[in-house]
Amino acid sequence: MAEAASALRVERLTGPRPTPLIRDVSLEVPHGETRLVLGPIQAGKSMLMRHIVGLERPISGTIQLDGERIDGDAEQDASVRRMRARLGVVFEGSALLTRISAMENVELPLLEHTDASPSEARDAARELLAEVGLSVAEHAAPEDLGRSAQRRVAIARALALRPSVLLLDEPTRGLDAYAAHEVDDLLTALQERHGFGTLIFSHEVRHAFGPATEIYVMERGSIVAHGDRQAMESSDLEVVRQLMHRRGDHERRA
Amino acid sequence: MERPAATNIPVPTAPTYAPGSLSAVGGRFISRGRLGARALYWIGWIAFSRRSVVTAGVEGEVAAIGLGGLRLVASASVLVGLIATFQVSYQLAPYGAETLTTRVLAWFAARELGPIVVAILVVARSAASIAGELASMSATGEIDALRAMGLDPVKYLVAPKVLAVLIVLPALTVIADAMIPLGGWIGSTVFLGYSTNQFVEQFRESFLPRDLSVGIAKAVLFALVIAIISADEGLNAERKPHAIGAAATRAVVFCLIGVLAMDTMVNAIFYFIPSIL
Known about the structure:
Chain A is of the alpha/beta class and 254 residues long. In chain A, 36% of the residues lie in helices and 23% in strands. Chain A starts with 5 loop residues before the first strand and ends with a helix. Chain B has 277 residues and is mainly α. Chain B has a domain at 29-44 and 52-81 and 109-179 and 206-269. The longest helix of chain B has 41 residues, at 52-92.
């Protein structure tokens, strides 16, 4: 593959203000590829994601999307605001707005960030939902849908503005094995079609056996290991072994 | 293999909604003032916008708070009218002045009883639900999702609620203003033995249309107090499941105090500056 420009590049990120919970984190997601941030619960994965989407202000370090910095203050900097719209986010548990219908959830970013008319937004939303394999009734509320369908709506909403990078926090948590595989396959297919970079945050090792070609292992707010699956499997760092082989606990008890 | 040396990183805590840090040091008023100003700004935007997603939110809120509260307000107001009739007539009887009962009711109903009864009922019914809903949205990450998409939660969640309460509270007050005299009429005719004519005559003599407008103006103020305090409590709730109930309780407590304080202030102004109206 010819040199792929990074869709997302995080460099030496430390934050948030005033008490840092993540320190000196660097990672890179090329277009069309998948990266995994793997780590135990409370390792700082969600905090890292909150920085990337702009919910927390970093103390130092940079975040670049397609080569443009997005770590500034969106309230003052219109270009940051514009660039952040090119970031698709699927939060843990989907985080759909429950007061409006599933369809309106997908329309919302289009109505807010583009000049689409309500009827154009509705058509686009229907198309996006078809793309994630759903046809929902016009007024179906998010809570009327199953978990797997909710996750798909969240993915459709995240893709509405054709992002460069899709961030997914625990994308298959709460799904049974079958539904989880379906979501994996869906993400792979969508990525092939649209070429966005994907960054998955999870504590589930199963993602290491999916499309992610490189894995960042995070513990206590820092990246402690980085490499492909083979490198991780042969790592002798205990946290990596625990995550990859789930046997640290047994060993310690023995 | 040793674990990496502990770097003493504190356990991540729920990041609070920005004005929350102010309320932590006792700046509740600042937090609410800022929220109120932003909500009013977005209400202005809603009024002129053709985008439907937010406007649809207002309709839903009006239905939930207004139509849902209609039966409660109507029946409670009739009872309040009855209670006032019995109480006033009982108190005035020793002075042989029980014929003034209807007049007293007419003085009080629109100016004081209507707005305050409605405000307290709406606090009981809706303040807890507004705060609880926003607190649970905060707990499930919906509010963060909005902000991450570049959408202001005040515009999408708070402004429709504030606008809905601003519409509903004066409307319910007008209904209460009609139902309290109905209770008074039932009390006076069925239990105290007055004729309907006497009741209507006395009521008309003592009732001033401007009392109605004072009552409605009060309702508007109460609406702002209720909507903003309960929304603020909801947005500032901790991100834990049990925080939802706590936020709802705090919202009810602060709304009741806020409404009563506001009412005291308005009455004091009318007392000390009678020429104002």
